[in-house]
Amino acid sequence: MEHEPTDREGRRIALCAVDDGNWRAVADIAPRDEQRGFVAALAARYLLLSMCGGLWTSLGVLADDTVVGHVMWAYDEEGGAHWIGGVVVDADEQGKGVGRAAMQALIRMLSRRPDCREIRLSYHPDNSGAAKLYAALGFTPTGDLEDDEVVVALAVPRDPAA
Ligand SMILES: CC(C)(COP(=O)(O)OP(=O)(O)OC[C@H]1O[C@@H](n2cnc3c(N)ncnc32)[C@H](O)[C@@H]1OP(=O)(O)O)[C@@H](O)C(=O)NCCC(=O)NCCS
Q: What pLDDT, in 10s, does the model give residues 16-34?
């Protein structure tokens, strides 16, 4: 049986579609001021990218019933990899285990897609917190750079029962 990931406060961390009821809360997710060099100042920017680009899908991160973060994912048909982006935990909610649990939930969700063999993401080379988190989740460097960001990848094992 699969357990829902929880943060260090015991809150259930889950991903949710962005809808009429929660889009404001998702749009208002903001990193700490000093993290603005690594990510957008507001998740609203990622929501717009999801709406306009036709590539990314934004999801809210819930801690129990409260929106505490944003993530998004895409499938790169050419490269054959799924990508994660726009990972932001609201400034006041950081350091509680939300980011780790949200990433675990997203990796689990993407891994269930039949075409998912590899998950990739990129981060600013100075973003040591993100680097630690992704390494702990099993992502390893690909050697590639994307817009001057370090690209890491996680292999998704093929489910023999599928
Ligand atoms: C990176 C981010 C998503 C992590 O979310 P979080 O909820 O704060 O992280 P967690 O509490 O789940 O911590 C998970 C791990 O991340 C690493 N980590 C997170 N913040 C860190 C920091 N400031 N310094 C060092 N390591 C850090 C640690 O390895 C930590 O594990 P530990 O608690 O066992 O030490 C969050 O800090 C954030 O939104 N930062 C701004 C946006 C950003 O940089 N996003 C990533 C873009 S690629």
A: 999 999 999 999 999 999 9
CA–CA separation, 31 vs 37, rounded Å? 10
88 CB within 6 A, ligand 1: yes
Atom of ligand 1 nearest to the CA of 136: 29
pTM above 0.70, yes or no: yes
Fold for domain 13-119?
Aminopeptidase (3.40.630)
Q: What pairs with residue 154 in β-bridges?
A: 119
* Distance in angstroms (rounded) separating the CA atoms of residues 60 and 159: 27
Cβ–ligand 1 distance for 85 under 6 Å, the answer no
- The sign one gets for the Cα dihedral 81, 86, 89, 91 is positive
Question: Can you say whether residue 95 is alpha, beta or left, with left for phi > 0 and alpha for psi between -120 and 50 degrees?
Answer: left
Mean pLDDT across 126-141: 98
The ligand 1 atom at the shortest distance from the C-alpha of residue 122 is: 48
Average pLDDT in the chain: 95
What's the CA-to-centroid distance between 143 and ligand 1, angstroms? 22
Distance (Å) from CA 159 to ligand 1 centroid: 30
